[in-house]
Amino acid sequence: MNWPTYMCLTTDGSDRPHTDQVQALCSAGVDWVQLRAREMSDQELEPIAFECMIRCREIGSTFVLNDRLDLALRLGADGVHLGKLDTPWAEARERAGAGFLIGGTVNSVEDAERAVASGVLDYVGVGPFKFTHTKKNLAPVLVVSDVRAILETLGDLPSYAIGGIEPADIPEVLALGVTGAAICSVLYRKPNVSDIYQTLLNTL
User: Fold this and answer.
1) N or C end: fewer C-beta atoms under 10 angstroms in the chain?
2) What pLDDT was estimated at residue 191?
3) Whole-number Å distance between alpha carbons of 64 and 81
4) How far apart are CA 70 and CA 159, in angstroms?
5) Contacts by 188-197, CB closer than 8 A, 24 or more apart
6) What b/e string do you get for 163-195 counting C-beta neighbours within 10 Å, with b at 16 or more?
7) Which of 54-86 are b and which e, b meaning 16 or more Cβ less than 10 Å from the residue's Cβ?
8) Alpha carbons 92 and 100: distance in angstroms, whole number
């Protein structure tokens, strides 16, 4: 797979509905959209997620759901991102089969060892890189030595820095050796998501 530099996430912490966030992301031409909506039931989210997925299909963007394996499979999404308290990775792979993207969250070397040992993940999110309000029960922020130890443990498994990342952080983040970065809240601080995304691209 041709892994993107940026995975772009939606957030509950915006005054824009998730459909509007995804529309803005797709208009900006992003390669990867992760729908992260923690405050709705699967039943409430399903029509919203379907609309978002169709929009992503129209522009050829990868569409991944956060946490919700059942809904992702029912919709025919490209994949799911699972935290440590969500569906176990091996169980998710068994249910989803090959060809379905599964990402996991890694906050420590021990998590990285578990991710590699599972043999079922396509990529991992490594962090938190900085403090962020978009995540409740945030794990301790990693220092550079932590990140490097985690990446050494992960080996060739694609890795994305997560947690409060902004355009100014990108050179430092990529210098650590990650595949790319997961971007969330900064995308929605100004009316035009395309401008923020272009700024991110320009840092490359």
Assistant:
1) N
2) 83
3) 7
4) 24
5) 188/11, 188/14, 188/16, 188/21, 188/24, 193/21, 193/24, 193/25, 193/27, 193/28, 194/24, 194/27, 194/28, 194/29, 196/28, 196/167, 197/6, 197/8, 197/25, 197/28, 197/29, 197/30
6) bbbbbebbeebbebebbbbbbbbbbbeeeebbe
7) ebbeeeebbbbbbbbbebbbebebbbbbbbeeb
8) 10
> Which tokens hold the place of 185?
């809240």
The answer to whether 185 and 11 have CB atoms below 8 angstroms apart is: yes
Q: Which of 196, 176, 199 is nearest to 187 (CA)?
A: 196
Instruction: Report yes or no: 107 and 125 within 8 Å, Cβ to Cβ.
Output: no
pLDDT tens for each residue of 122-178: 999 999 998 665 555 567 899 999 999 999 999 999 999 999 999 999 999 999 999
Residue 155 tokens, joined: 């080996």
- d(CA 56, CA 79) in angstroms, rounded, equals 13
Q: What is the pLDDT of residues 28-66, one digit of tens each?
A: 999 999 999 998 999 999 999 999 999 999 999 999 999
Tokens of 12: 């509950």
